[in-house]
Amino acid sequence: MNGPLFRFARWCPGALGLWLRQRLFPSYFKTCGRKVLFGRFVELVGPEKIELGSRVVLTNGVVLDAGRAMASPAIILEDSVFIGTGSVLSAEGQGTLTIRAGANFSSLCRVRASAPLEVGRNCLVAAYCELGDGTPEEEVRDQGELKRETTVAEGCWLGVRMRLLPGVTVGHDTIVGAHAVVTTDLPSYVVAVGNPAAVLRKR
Predict the structure, then answer these.
(1) For the segment 169-191, what is each residue's pLDDT rounded down to a tens digit?
(2) How far apart are CA 203 and CA 200, in angstroms?
(3) CA pair distance 37, 112, nearest whole angstrom
(4) For residue 39, which of 15, 20, 61 has the smallest C-alpha distance?
(5) Packed helices 4-11 and 14-24: angle between N→C axes, nearest 10 degrees
(6) What SS3 string covers the chain?
(7) Given the DSSP bridges, would you call strands 145-146 and 141-142 parallel, antiparallel or unpaired?
(8) From the CA atom positions of the chain, what is the Rg in Å?
(9) What tens digit of pLDDT does each residue of 31-75 get?
(10) Cα–Cα 20 to 30 A to 55, which of 40, 70, 145, 199?
(11) Going by CATH, does the domain composed of 4-202 fall within 2.160.10.10?
């Protein structure tokens, strides 16, 4: 992956660059569907542990990092997932990251899976959001035991600069406001805001 052809394709602008990346990059992945689009300067670490569905879009500067993960596949992006400019998606240790079909991430998001983390179908994630990335003091516990799985159910909207701590579940079709910090589970069909996030009203 560090050969001259890969480096040229990663840099190459315009239609030629898109064409080269469409032809070259799929061979690096565990599996890769049809019509996947790769922007410029996409960084791939451990792509042999990454599965991409069809019509996935990875825009400029996206990082997919499965290099420190034990599972294979460690990162799964299902059909029609969109990952915005400069976003970083990583899995490490026992972590697995699954993004279901139709989910859309805006620019400069950070998703880190050190345990199972799933984002549901058709979720909309605004810019600068952080999912699953917390300090040891912020780790979510249930009756003294560390909660492991992090889940955003289908149809959720997550506002700009929202943070979702590891071990939290957000119910389906829930809206989380900008700059909110989600430290406890949120039910379905609600609007939640604040730090820590609390239910403002039902939808």
Answers:
(1) 999 999 999 999 999 999 999 99
(2) 10
(3) 23
(4) 61
(5) 130
(6) CCCHHHHHHHHCCHHHHHHHHHHHHHHHCCEECCCCEECCCCEEECHHHEEECCCCEECCCCEEEEEEECCCCCEEECCCCEECCCCEEEEEECCCEEECCCCEECCCCEEEECCCEEECCCCEECCCCEECCCCHHHCCEECCEECCCEEECCCCEECCCCEECCCCEECCCCEECCCCEECCCECCCEEEECCCCEEEEEC
(7) antiparallel
(8) 17
(9) 999 999 999 999 999 999 999 999 999 999 999 999 999 999 999
(10) 70
(11) yes
The four Cα atoms 156, 160, 163, 168 give a dihedral, to 10 degrees, of -10
Name the residue with tokens 């701590």: 165
119 within 8 A of 103, measured Cβ to Cβ: yes
Write down the residue that tokens 């950070």 correspond to: 110
**Of 59, 61, 62, 56, which Cα lies nearest the Cα of 76?**
56
List phi, psi (to 5°) of 138. -95, -5
